[in-house]
Amino acid sequence: MLQLRTTGLLALERLRSRGEFPQEWNGHGELEAATDRFLEKFAEERFAVAGELGPGFVLLELFERVVRCGDLEHMDDPATDGARKAEMVRALDRMNGLTMIYRLQVELLEPLITELSQQRGGTVRVLELASGSGGLAFALAEHAREKGIRLEVTASDIVPESVSAGRLAAAGRGVAVGFEVVNAFELDGLGKGTFDLVLVSQSLHHFTPGQLALMIAGAESLGAAAFVGIDGQRSPLMLLGVPAVASLQGIPEFTDDAFTSARKFYSDLELDIIAEVATRRRAHRVDAIWPMSMLTVRMES
Question: What's the whole-model pTM score?
Fold first, then answer.
């Protein structure tokens, strides 16, 4: 339910057999539009397949269409007061600590980081995009220090205020995490070979399919060995559970954002499609590790 794998896989196979997948694109300027266009086509094909399979599948598709939304979250809304946004960012950090989400993500990332360290024979340089408060960046750096892993972590965001707050937090915690203002859709300016791993955590749903494809393609252009995207699993339980846990923070807008986020989470098959469009090959995997979905894209060396 909400993953819609049966209808989704059949729809994708049809589109592939007709030569409509993966999408053709030339340059990053076309990639965003091509990805968004194909995801819309995929959803329509999936609905057509559901109609052929029977009423039960159609009901699931209709439920998906009611649940899915593209609403702007309070945290992303320019009209939301800056102090209120900062309060919600702190609330998210507390929630991740309470639910041990940072610890889970560090455990998921450690095997890849260890592998890259062995392959490259030195320090692994990680760039986190859309890092917000930098909670995961701090958790990674602290874990690496405890385990003796040679790791350089740079947290980045498009919002200068978030970067400034991150730098102050890093100084206070005594952790070597750098913070930089970075446009996640324009990584070419960072210099080829600057980073080994590009990471996006808990914010995939804030971006359109085309924007995610741009990040993946940007990571490849940057010369990174891998791109990793981690977010909540798309499921009815998350639809109920995420806002329920968020409500413990006592901030109505934060609870509302949590419900909106759960409605926007990508299915595992959607992440799979986005990665294949962005790279034009199947050099990736999507793992469902409750309550997260993790996309790992290996880049050509």
Answer: 0.96
